Amino acid sequence: MRDHYGTWRDQPKGLACAVVVAFLVLTTVAFGLAVLAVVLAAR
């Protein structure tokens, strides 16, 4: 398990940030689409 964390920590910090940002963007988009679907369904 320590080796797994070590290899993950050795990766560039920029790559990790890009992954986190992409995940947050996708989550926000999915949440927005869900809200839009609820609003359209309520009409």
What's the overall geometry?
A: rod-shaped
Helix content: over 70%
Count up the helices.
Answer: 2
> Runs with pLDDT <50, length 5+?
none
Strand content: under 5%
Main beta-sheet strand count, sense and barrel state: none
**Rg from Cα:** 17 Å
Distance from first to last alpha carbon? 51 Å
The ordered string of helix (H) and strand (E) elements is HH
Structural class by helix and strand composition: mainly alpha
Q: How confident overall, as mean pLDDT? A: 84
The tally of domains stands at: 1
Q: Count the strands?
A: 0
What does this protein structure show overall?
With 43 residues, this protein is mainly α. The protein has one domain. The chain contains 2 helices and no strands. The chain starts with a helix and ends with a helix.
Write the topology of this structure.
Blueprint lengths: L1 H9 L2 H30 L1
Provide key terms for this protein.
2 helices; mainly alpha; 43 residues; single chain
Task: Provide a compact summary of the structure.
By secondary structure, the protein is mostly helical. The protein is built from two helices and no strands.
